[in-house]
Design a protein that fits this description.
The chain is mainly β and 181 residues long. It has one helix spanning 120-124, and strands at residues 19-21, 31-33, 37-45, 64-69, 71-75, 84-92, 104-109, 112-119, 131-140, 143-150, 162-163, 165-173. Strand 7 and strand 8 form a beta hairpin.
């Protein structure tokens, strides 16, 4: 059995991995723009030494985030690889000034709605508190597609979806259906 490993990934590099942390490169006050985001969406990092995130053994994982992320496509399988099933965990924490009902969004995986009206503050029980959402049996044929769709079509910055980290674990290879020849 292979040893479990993690990759803490920077958004500018290609992704062919099973786990990633959404962080910008550079200093703690860095913000970096990215595609597939609401207008103005960006990566931001808070100081992991002075930011207390409750509800996790690894609070530093939740001090960097993709603010306003709409869509993330992660290549998991190469050409000729059989389809596989994955377990996906999203790690989220609302920023200090968020209020319940403010940052509400849907989560879609592989074009299927898996979480409707997700409110980080309500789910976590407050701000700067980790909340994890786990989804099993996600079938992937090549790329894993994650979409975060805001409740409003033109959300304000404080209403954008936010995502701090993702864990992706392969569960098994999806069997090919029997063929009738």
């Amino acid at each position: 059995m292979p040893k479990q490993s993690y990759l803490w990934h920077h958004e500018r590099k290609p992704i062919h991995v099973f786990g990633l942390l959404l962080v910008p490169e550079a200093s703690s006050d860095c913000t970096c723009s990215f595609p597939n985001a609401y207008s103005g969406g960006r990566f931001a990092k808070r100081n992991s030494t002075y930011t207390n995130i409750a509800g996790t053994k690894n609070p530093w994982l939740l001090t960097s985030a993709a603010h306003g992320l709409r869509k993330l496509v992660i290549p998991l399988l190469g050409k000729g690889d059989p389809p596989a099933s994955y377990r996906l965990r999203l790690a989220l924490a609302a920023p200090p000034k968020d209020k319940p009902g403010q940052r509400v969004f849907n989560v879609t995986l592989q074009n299927k709605l898996v979480e409707k009206g997700f409110d980080i503050v309500r789910a976590a029980g407050g701000v700067d508190r980790a909340v994890f959402r786990e989804f099993r049996g996600i079938e992937v044929r090549d790329n894993l597609t994650i979409e975060l769709v805001a409740k409003l079509s033109q959300p304000a910055e404080d209403q954008w979806p936010i995502l701090q980290a993702i864990e992706i674990v392969r569960e098994d290879v999806v069997p090919k259906p029997d063929r009738f020849d």
